[in-house]
């Protein structure tokens, strides 16, 4: 595999500080954060996969923008990324690997679109509020895909109000 990286300048095709390898179909797989001092990372719109362990242990990374070209988030992809506070998974993602966001101790919220058909064991752990676009757990999601998280199925979070430090979810009269 030929690795591609742009550690000294920003490229219009690939994001600064991330190593990729090129697949036979000319798509790219994000494999590692080259510049560990980066706090905000935007992946290339040519990336179709985030490889296993790609950003594992990148504790200084506070945010990552995953483009709509990505379909797979690999095992341990963000394991131990303690700087991440929230994650929005694009509609293009269909699979999230085991422990993808495990030990992301400061991750407070995550959005999972209904297109995600597979989530493996311990993809999310900790005190995370997970907003799932689906109305219930899809069949191919592991029974232990989360641990210690609050799960909300098909909830409109714009209906949440906060009073005296307590959050309330408003349900419409029916």
How would you describe this protein?
With 174 residues, this protein is mainly β. The strands form five sheets. It has a seven-stranded mixed sheet with strand order 1-2-3-5-7-9-11, with no helix packed on it. Strands 8-10-13-15 form a four-stranded parallel sheet, with no helix packed on it. It has strands at residues 3-4, 18-22, 28-33, 40-42, 47-50, 63-65, 72-73, 86-88, 95-96, 109-112, 118-119, 124-125, 129-132, 146-147, 150-153, 160-163, 166-169.
Which terms summarize this structure?
globular, mainly beta
SSE series: EEEEEEEEEEEEEEEEE
Helix content: under 10%
Q: What distance lies between the first and last C-alpha atoms, to the nearest angstrom?
A: 57 Å
Largest sheet: 7 strands, mixed
- Strands of the widest sheet, in order across it, are 1-2-3-5-7-9-11
Uncertain parts: 1-15
Secondary structure class reads mainly beta
Shape: globular
Would you report the number of β strands? 17
Q: Output the number of helix runs.
A: 0
Mean pLDDT: 82
Strand content: 25-35%
Structural Rg: 17 Å
In short:
With 174 residues, this protein is mainly β. A seven-stranded mixed β-sheet has the order 1-2-3-5-7-9-11, with no helix packed on it. The radius of gyration is 17 Å and the shape is globular.
